[in-house]
Amino acid sequence: MAGEQKAKAKMEQAKGKAKETVGRTVGNERMEAEGRADQAKGDARQAKEKTKDVFKH
């Protein structure tokens, strides 16, 4: 399960980065902001999983 969550976090980060880049390229500030939000969500999920790993060992 933890591996699945880590993969999901990486996917959210990548999706957010892509969305941010596209938004910046086409001049769409909303899309750019959504991309940053997706990245932050992925970062938070990844931090949570790392914290769980610390307490597991």
Q: What distinguishing features does this structure have?
A:
57 residues; mainly alpha; 0% strand; elongated; single chain
Describe the secondary-structure layout.
Elements: H1 2-26, H2 29-56
Helix pairs in contact: 1-2
Fold and architecture overview:
- By secondary structure, the chain is mainly alpha-helical.
- It has 2 helices and no strands.
- The longest helix has 28 residues, at 29-56.
- The chain is elongated, with a radius of gyration of 13 Å.
- The model has no long low-confidence stretch (mean pLDDT 92).
Report the strand count. Answer: 0
DSSP summary: helix tally: 2
Characterize the main sheet.
Answer: none
Oligomeric state of shown chains = single chain
Along the chain, the helix and strand elements come as HH
Classification by helices and strands: mainly alpha
- Which strand-content bin applies to the residues? under 5%
Unreliable residue stretches: none
The dominant shape is: elongated
Report how far apart the termini are: 16 Å
Helix percentage range: over 70%
What's the Cα radius of gyration? 13 Å
